[in-house]
Amino acid sequence: MEVPREQYAATVLVDGCDEDARLLATLRARTATTFHDELEAQQEGLRAILPPVDSDESPAWAYYPWRRAAVRVLGPTEFQLLRLDRNRNKITRAEQQRLTELAVGIVGLSVGHAVALALALEGTCGAIRLADFDAVELSNLNRVPASVLDLGVNKAIVAARRIAEIDPYLALSVQPNGVDADTIDEFLLGLDLVIEECDSLDMKVAVRVGARARRIPVLMHTSDRGLVDVERFDLEPDRPLFHGLLGDVDVESLAGLSARGKVAPALRILGAADISSRMAASLVELGTTVSTWPQLGGDVLLGGAALAAAVRRFGLGQSLPSGRVRIDLDERLDALRAPMVGRDLGCGEATPAAGPPDDAIGAMVHAVSRAPSGGNAQPWAVHADDGGLRLYLDPGRTTTMDVQLRASYVALGAALFNARVAAAAHGKLGPVELFGGGDGPTLVATMTFGDGSDDRLARRYEGMLRRTTNRHVGVPAPIAPETELALAGAARAEGARLSMVTDLRDIVAAAEVFADSERVRLLDPRLHREMFGELRWPEDPLDTGIDIRSLELDDAELSTIGIVSRPDVMTHLAEWDLGGALGAVTRDRVVSSSALAAVVVSGCEPRDFVCGGSAVESVWISAEDHGLAVQPIAPVFLYGVDGADLDELAPAYAGQLSEGRRVLRELFGMTSGEVFALIVRLSHAPRATVRSRRRPSVLGPATGRTKG
Fold first, then answer.
1. Please, what is the end-to-end C-alpha distance for the chain in angstroms?
2. Cα–Cα distance between 323 and 319 in angstroms, integer?
3. Is residue 59 packed enough to be buried (19+ CB in 10 Å), middle (13-18) or exposed (0-12)?
4. Confidence (pTM)
5. SS3 for 286?
6. Cis peptide before 51, with omega less than 30 degrees from 0?
7. Which of 2, 85, 101, 290 is the most buried (most CB within 10 A)?
8. Is the dihedral of CA 235, 238, 241, 242 positive or negative?
9. Omega before residue 89 within 30° of 0, cis
10. Model pLDDT, residue 353
11. In contact, 413 and 612? CB cutoff 8 Å
């Protein structure tokens, strides 16, 4: 039976259409028609969407004849953008658009009404076809989301009206006579998926026979214990109906069965052992004290949510194999347990750093342990005896960002500087040789003990022991010119050049580069894994890595650790090309700086980076002596000197990293052949809360080697 669309669908009257304007004028002339105009609020909501949308679509009036009401609405594209904006990013805009291509048919509008409602609310499809021969009765209102005003109205029409009042643009069609052998072909025509929620067993089978012949998948929900059933006839055209549970059955034999007569075949489908105890007990009373199978409204609504999720998976090409699963709320509620208390990320008491030994050799070895290194990896080993001290590279303590071990060589250079400072303070300073001797390529430096001293170095001893990373948000007060000169001299004394950025606009430009780099570090799976592998909590026994308290995060920033540390979350953001806020902490700290300082060396050999590391430590100690807080800022590309390095670092982001590298080189006035040893932010800030722990340096009794 053909049903006039005005019985269940909105009439959309578009601004600027003469014919629609004449019909609207006719409606306005009718005193019985109510007009609701909230367009201005909708337009305000549209303007608030992030990122902003650019659209000037004509609005419209949606007229609902059964309500004798017209509602002012945005145009179809703008309406969908605003109505479904809160779906993001559980459903992305691209996914939402893909789902509009899906046409879904629903047979049976008791449980099916909840499914149709969920699909419409989520915008999970672009067209819905509804079929049910029955009218709403009072006994339906324990589970059908209708009202007493709908009593006596066809269930398919009631569901369609409710959908139209949610979204006047959603394509709707109804078959108020339900489906039978004569109309099943018409119902299935053009559908991508069928949801079967019939009461009659013969039509359950008939729908599947027709769907299988047309390779259309069928979904079903049974409210008892939340059974979700999927039959992928599109992928398995020879799959037996109901997974073979019903066996070979004749459709005609199932027609006209009484409620009690349906029990046996229904139990073959559902499984007598799998239905709930209350359902099973009720079946015993069927026809005696209860007239039909019990259903609860909450269970039916759960079915709507479950099948909407299944439809969404199907429409997006995600995993949805044939089979069944139970989403049993009682079973889940029986599993209630007290939640585990998470880690306390607050700032507890820090373990005081051990002081240096009294003897000269012990003091020099201790000084090496106080050197900075990327991720506090401490990539060194030390041999020391009465004749001298040798620094070895430990290549096992490297990461992806440590391109060609350049960051490790910088750390070894800082360690060598500390050893020289301690030697000068104890009157044991002697000559230093880089990459000499016969101990292989990992021998980086040999310092022969003598009886020399150097007042400039000796004066750095106490400052070297105090040196720490300070990640507090700073106050961007100016740095005195004499301080800038002192820092430049500290770098120059170690064979490097210091380039400082002090203009706020340039600092902001650099902050954007650093923030973008932080986003890449979090989105790239390998870099992300290594980044969080460096973090240490107060209860962790390890003495490498970065103490999380030293990040100086406020409560809001700390609360995000549990999110940004999750690889699955970062995978979604990478797939969606989002995550612009991931660099916010870095951006805020860089913008709060008084200056950015880059230690620059000429040349790209290991020796150059060792010299650069000594300059870094010299500048760092000098900056703290002048009252400045120092934090190293290492963008992903810091030690990538060419395109091949960047491709190896993060192939998906190589172009972005290359552009960031170009911007920073320009900001710091880099010339051809110059490379970064390290970049630090200088600020005026409170003292650091804690210092990350160090591996103890213990002199080996026989060889004199220190062990970490």
1. 84
2. 12
3. middle
4. 0.87
5. strand
6. yes
7. 85
8. negative
9. yes
10. 66
11. yes
Q: Is 583 helix (H, G, I), strand (E, B) or coil?
A: helix
C-alpha span between 307 and 344 (Å, rounded) = 40
Give the C-alpha separation, 170 to 119, whole Å.
11
Which residues are paired to 499 by β-bridges? 598
Using CA atoms, how far residue 368 sits from 194, 350, 414, in Å, is: 71, 21, 8
Nearest to 168 by CA among 8, 342, 346: 8
* Calculated CA dihedral for residues 326, 327, 328, 333, nearest 10 degrees: 150
User: For residue 231, what are the β-bridge partners?
Assistant: 218
Q: How confident is the model at residue 342 (pLDDT cuts 50, 70, 90)?
A: low
Within 8 A by CB and 6+ apart from 116, the residues are 106, 109, 128, 130, 159, 163, 304
Separation of alpha carbons 591 and 473, rounded Å: 9
Strand-pairing partners, residue 498, are 599
Q: Please report which confidence band the pLDDT of residue 702 belongs to, taking 50, 70 and 90 as the band edges.
A: very low
DSSP assignment string, 132-161: ---B--GGGGGTSS--GGGTTSBHHHHHHH
**At 225, is the secondary structure helix, strand, or coil?**
helix
Return the DSSP state at 228. E
Strand partners, 705: 383
Span 177-205, pLDDT tens digits: 999 988 999 999 999 999 999 988 889 99
476, 504 contact by CB (below 8 A): yes
Residue 11 is encoded by which pair of tokens?
Answer: 């009439």
In degrees, rounded to 5, the angle at the alpha carbon of residue 297 between the alpha carbons of residues 291 and 302 is 130
Instruction: Compute the distance between CA of residue 177 and CA of residue 181 in angstroms, rounded to an integer.
Output: 12
Q: By the 8 A CB rule, do 433 and 406 touch? A: no
- Tens of pLDDT, residues 345-373: 554 445 566 788 989 999 999 999 999 99
User: In this structure, are residues 69 and 16 in contact, taking their beta carbons and an 8 Å threshold?
Assistant: no
At 108, give phi and psi (nearest 5°).
100, 110
Cβ(232)–Cβ(322) under 8 Å?
yes
Nearest Cα neighbor of 91 from 112, 129, 121 is 121
CB 547 within 8 A of CB 611: no
Residue 691, both tokens = 């210092």
**What is the chain's length?**
708
